[in-house]
Specification:
This protein has about 500 residues and is of the alpha/beta class. The protein has three domains: about 60 residues, Arc Repressor Mutant, subunit A (Orthogonal Bundle); about 120 residues, Aspartate Aminotransferase, domain 1 (Alpha-Beta Complex), CATH 3.90.1150; about 240 residues, 3-Layer(aba) Sandwich (Aspartate Aminotransferase, domain 2), CATH 3.40.640. Helix content is about 40%, strand content about 15%. Strand 6 and strand 7 form a beta hairpin.
Length: about 500
Amino acid sequence: MKKAPPVIFPIVTVDRTSPVPLYRQLYDGFREAILERRLRAGQRIPSTRSLATELQVSRLPLLNAFDQLVAEGYLESRVGAGTFVADCHSGAPGPPEPENRSAAARGGARTVSRETDFLLRMETDPWLRGEGAFRVSQPALDHFPLEIWSRLVGRRGRKAHGARAMRYDDPMGHRPLREAVAAYLRTARAVRCEADQVMVVSGSQQALSLTARVLLDPGSPVWVEEPGYGGARDVFRLRGARLVPVPVDEQGLNVAAGIERCREARAAYVTPSHQYPLGMTMSASRRLQLLDWARRNGSWILEDDYDSEYRYEGVPLASLQGLDRDSRVFYIGSFSKVLFPALRLGYIVIPADLVARFAAVRDATDLFPPTFEQAVLADFIREGHFARHLRRMRALYRERRGILAGAIEEELGGALSVLGGEAGLHLVATLSRGNGDRDVAVRAAAQGLWAMPLSSCYLGKASREGFVLGFGGTEAAEILDGVRRLRSVLAT
């Protein structure tokens, strides 16, 4: 006979000094929990024997209370299974949501930070919510070697050494993964680092958040690319920094314009290998200019190398950090796009003299990253699966980018023009006429097309309009169909 799984004990209190009989207190407690939906339809209730032990009461008042609750339709008894909450709310309106209550009913004003107001834009931007054609930052998850990963997970689970693997870990992250990441970055990206400088984080957003906490004070000016990555701007604004938009051109960030606008900026955020979103590569002269400015001004550079693994033309590009001789660059990377977003693992390469400060801030915020997934990823890298996966994905994404660019040229050549180099998991297509990319993006989302408007990447007034079109997670047939449907949306 299959044993029923353990159930959670609901909070029901009894007052032995009250004149109200115990069975009535128990009845009222369960009835209130059901009406307030703290206990939901179908939820199993512990046995009266278990409840009597938990509440330290006789079973008799519990049996009387349950009999009445069953009779009134709040509970139902299933032979051989136990007692369950009945579906007594079917067709009835639910309890009012807290936001529908008046301020007086809430007990006065509910003061919150105004700094978070701008984040609510995600509620009105449909292109940030969908899954499917042109969704930005989505890799080809169906091509991930799940069988290999599952085998490593199982092996690592069996190798876990009991309680030792469940203890608190280093705020910098699991040492074997940090060593594997450092070796990979030194070889593939020419990053100057040792494992002691690598901090494992929960993706690039946490990397930016920690870096902002350590480097910036409220009011600190920060250069951001214009157009640029909205997620980075959000982090800096939450820190209270003053954003200084610096234009980009075909050579990347215009350093001279940044110096003219705010020479004394505390930091500069850049995507030099594949500018987000326009796709150009920062030229060598601009990189040297930026490093010289940081050295002379005592400023910091945050290099976000978000999808540098995917370059389809020419030789691989070295990192900006590899050119730094004054320890002014923080190198940020993520496994979200090269593996899968739900992994939530990334890294920061920190100048050696600031490692202790970063570790202290990490310890004060979330202590350390989960160890198990880091151990599996370290195995995945060390055993060569990571390098093989990158090679396969490079070929796949090169093909998908070519299909998307070709379809745009064939179907939308008069309306859209492709920008950017042969790299990354998205391309930008600019509008030749002022159609209003946000309005088009909203109409496209209604048709299941997740085309991010280029204008949403600008901090100020957009000098170009168009779309940021992801192709990584979109199959060839879906790309072709999506472009045809986008043509129909543009025509309306």
